[in-house]
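Box 3.1. Reading complex inputs
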Amino acid sequence: MGEQLPASIKQVWRLHAVIWGGVWLVIALGLTVAHGLWHWPLWLAGIFLAIGLLHPLLQFSFIPYRYAFGRYLITETAVYLRSGFVFRKEEAVPISRIQNVTLEAGPLLASKGLQEVQIETASTQHSIAGVTTAVAGQLRDRIMQLAQEARDDA
Amino acid sequence: MTPKHLPVLALVLMLIEEVKSWGWALLIMVVGLFKGGGLQALAGGLAILALCLVLVGVRYGRFTYLLDVDAVTINTGLFVRKVRHIPYAKIQTVQRQQWFFLRPFHLESVTLETSGQEGKGGEAALYAVPLSVATAIEARRHHPKPTEPTPAMASQAAPATPAGSSYRIDAHDLNVFALTSLGFIPIITGMFWLIDKFTDLAPDSWQHTIDNQMAHLAVVLLAALVVIVLVIGLAVSYLNILQRYFHFTLTRTGETLTATRGLFKTISVSVRLNRIQALRFKQSLLRQWCGLTTIQALTASNAADDEKENDLVMLPVVRTAASLATARRFVAWLPAIAPTLTMVAPTHRWYYVRNVIIGNLVWLVPGLVATGIWLPSWLGWAGLGAVLWLVFFGAQAYNAARQSGVAVAAETILCVQTGSWWARERFYVRRANIQSLTVKNSVWLAQHNLGHLEVNVRAGDSNETLTVNYLPLATITEILTWYQPTAPFLLATD
């Protein structure tokens, strides 16, 4: 039940993991240079090198899991989000409680024509990791329209 | 109309505030002075005081306000001139504070709160203004123009509100409230900490004298010292509560609740009923034994009747049996009878204890191993400490498990009960004020048909999550469908 995220989100996540790996490696490289110049301990660089390999690896290995079990569903009255299988989480956000909707796309998401949907209530934030620009636009319009129509149950 | 300056007494209040915010720096100076810093520390302290004076002087000079037809206008700023307009209709709470030294002058400080979030100018303070200012603001706030659109959050009208109602704490109740308060715990802890730190702070010469005297003190005298600390702690806590809640009065006029209290500083907070997000019925272990309850209101704005807390104390102390009926005189949507809660099953309570113990072992075990390697002589004490720690937090977790429960109390009201720090907290929330619901679960819990329920409610500027763990999935489904009849409840469809 519910919609799966578009398949291209997996590429975004992979790229994201690669970039993180790059960031850690650059730090490790900097620390190696610092070792050469000012005799900073070499194990500092070693730690960041290890992080630089492990972090992207972990992210990579979780991409299929994250993709397979992430769902969202938008009905006339509420937005439902769900994630995970081993540890599961499900959120229900009635549209009448939604204060604002933000569509956001960094360069990675934008390059795949995707947008992140952020939903805010008076006290909580929820997000749909990435949907196609067309779907995101429809979503926003629908939520805003419903939010205007909706009157809380009383 | 021309904007007005604040009365001169406001300068005093502003200066107190400013010096308070520099308190940490002054404290360092005082410690420095004791440690023999002498002139440098003194000069530093004086420099800070001078800076405060200049800052406050400029702020006072540039501060003007005007009660306009439909908004309060406040002008501030020396280089960057700022003009703020706060429409009466958007004011969520009005807080009035009157220090005893303002009383003869018929002045008071007024804080206006709008629902703008996190100090982004959501609050405005008028120091030491005439009493007529707050009265005028209140009057205009209560009679907004009929064309004013209802804010989305305020769209729920309370059903058939009876006419005004009021409650005033009597001497007996106030006494019981102060006696059953656990406020002495931080005070006593603080005093012991101070005595302990005294040796670090005091000049060496004092310390020597004291050490010499201490050596002569018998155990009996040390015990007497402990007793004195306890008695002073209890007395300070008791008197502090007496003066803070002196003449506590709660009144409802139309759709506004006003709570007034205080001896030296009279504080009056008024909140619109529709801003109340939830009610919290709180009982510490001590008050559970005495059959007493404290009722607080969680509000959407900072209805702070205290600097640190966002929650408005509605009824400081009331007999548990009469609590719901008394609260209902002020908040009409409360259910008439307390619901029967679906509690965490006794067989599942140990999960709470297990989680806390595992969570603490994660750092206790490495800590003990490290102690064993580097400080082997301390291992016995560290082990004992670790066991006591686990017993203490395990007991807390067991209390939480025993108290946790949930029920749909009436057609539109959810009742959630949680336990923490020897206390029981029961929340009544209207469906319209539940911002979102979260259900959590794992592969293993699914086999036992259990899950965790999180109810999100706005409190002050942020979110208050009411969590009940290890509830039957059937109960969770019932609450989810009560919240959203169309909820697909994806967890159950695997």
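In summary: Chain A touches chain B at residues 1-2, 71, 73, 75-78, 80, 82, 85-94, 96-97, 99, 121-124, 126, 147, 151-154 (CB under 8 Å).
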